Amino acid sequence: MLVLTAAAGCSAAGRGDASPGAGSRPASTACVIVALKAIRVGSQPGPLVITPDGKTVYVANANSGTVTPIRVATNTALRPIVVGDANSGPSAIAVTPDGRTVYVADLSGVVVPIRTATGTALRRITVGQFPEGIVITPDGKTAYVLNWNPFGSTGTVTPIRIATNTALRPIPVGLQSGVTAIAITPDGRTVYVTNPGSGTVTPIRTATGTALRPIRTGLTPSQIAITPDGAMAYVSDFDSGTVTPIRVATNTALRPIRVGVRPAGIAVSPDGRTVYVTAVTANPVSQRGTVTPVSVAAGRAGTPILAGFGPIALVVAPDGRTLYASNYQGNTVTPIRTATGTALPPVTVGTQPDAMAITPDGRTVYVVHYSNDDGPGYVTPIRTCARR
After folding, report:
1. What is each CA distance from 99 to 103, 113, 253, in whole angstroms?
2. What is the pTM of this model?
């Protein structure tokens, strides 16, 4: 394995392999991207969130009805917090800006607040059917819960007043008929919800709690990312092979940008200049998926970057220098150097890597391993090349 100095760049290694190759000597500033020992959590872990102070990761375990806290300093799992049961399942998770409360959506139709200081679950809040997404306003006053209706009728978004943990009147958002996503602008004024069944995105004006006219996108809108300045939202159109830009000020869709086959995962660089989108590939030789950079200023896709097999989720380091793609079918995570658009060697992390989160200091990426069985689940930490 090649070991490079931090000034020259980073190399990548498999799980726990931080030693140099035979005959080599690591420099004092050596930097290696390496997967650490997997952390055992509950059954079928899914979404995860990291507190703003970077001290704790919370992982929702769908088949255990629990949330597992992980202490970042030691990468150890703490006692699971019960929020539901095996017949329901935690499906979404979010943390308030002050880090005091984690909100967990459970498919039984409730949201459970967790007080982070004590690790205790508070009284359940009843929302709509099958909640599967949560966002919280930057001022920490309101949570918005996306309720997916699997029976063909209109889905809803339920606002929760955080000061009292009370649900407000649900807001109808449109025909969903599939996995949906929710996002909020940095100023907290607008919430966006994808409606795969109708090929639209519904904006919600938070000041009035009203849904605005749906915005037409491509087929089967999947994920949403919003630029840091709040000027643009980008929607991956799974069945169109495109990304649809939306101008937030006017809630108008711009010309779709072609990015590849079945785009799903989407992320924006911290400087707001580039949007990154995962896609599978139609190349019968490599069968490797891609991550396509899209220039925000030009509204144009750049050269696709080869990732691993089945890239599904993306996270960008806080300094914007490195992008990470989880390769669901390849059991790896691919680090990508954003300045040059080049992929580093994939990091082997274990079976079916899915959702990811990165600490505020950029030093650790946490990768969830999805599992279809009822056995224990795992989260793998990846030590990055962020400066220490």
Report:
1. 11, 12, 34
2. 0.91
